[in-house]
Design goal:
6-stranded antiparallel β-sheet; Alpha-Beta Plaits; alpha+beta; 195 residues; two-stranded antiparallel sheet
Length: 195
């Protein structure tokens, strides 16, 4: 018996009751972990960008990362602006007993399993999974280590809009800025449309 489409079932993954409270109340807790998901190319096996990302959420569940909530979906202009196809983006809140570094490694493993090939910066892609915020932790990162929060999160509408949908009271762990203030400071060319 599961609480959501992607997992969090009794018997498969242990339930963390603080994280369950966040799901039931709709408010992120101090233990919230947020992952950004985006794609702008169809996948030959999974279909549209959104279908591919939803399949990736299911794969995360199979790897012990329970998807608690999924934001609304947004179609977003590429950043920086270019002639590549627009992206489909969402943010998920997850529960995990993994460390931030191990979770980042799993995100990369899922991307690779779904055919992600890293070529040039900001290239079109079939899948992109980014660790945005891990329980409010701050970390410098490095080779194979998570940089927390995600270093470009505050300047990207395609991350902030779905994150605000999921966690309207969220604050940047480093600056303390409210998400609404970060959204207001974004340039007008970062177009997002709620689907």
């Amino acid at each position: 018996m599961g609480l959501c489409k992607y997992g969090l079932s009794v018997g498969y993954n242990p339930i963390n009751y603080k994280e369950l409270e966040a799901v039931l109340t709709g408010r992120p807790g101090p233990h919230s972990v947020f992952i950004g998901a985006g794609a702008n190319l169809p996948h030959p096996s999974y279909g549209t960008p959104r279908e591919t990302l939803e399949a990736a959420f299911e794969e995360l569940t199979r790897r012990g990362v329970s998807v608690l909530r999924v934001s609304a979906w947004f179609t977003t202009a590429p950043v920086p602006a270019s002639d590549q196809p627009w992206y489909q983006n969402a943010v998920i809140e997850v529960a995990t007993d993994l460390s931030a570094d191990r979770l980042l490694a799993i995100l990369h493993e899922v991307e690779e399993a779904f055919g992600r090939v890293r070529t040039t910066l900001n290239a079109p892609r079939m899948i992109d999974l980014d660790l945005l915020d891990f329980r409010g932790e701050i970390a410098r990162g490095g080779a194979g280590l998570a940089t927390l929060p995600h270093p470009r999160l505050a300047s990207r509408a395609f991350v902030l809009r779905p994150l605000a949908d999921l966690a309207p009271q969220w604050r940047h762990p480093v600056t303390g800025e409210a998400i609404q203030a970060l959204l207001a400071a974004l340039p007008a060319d970062q177009v997002t449309e709620r689907l």
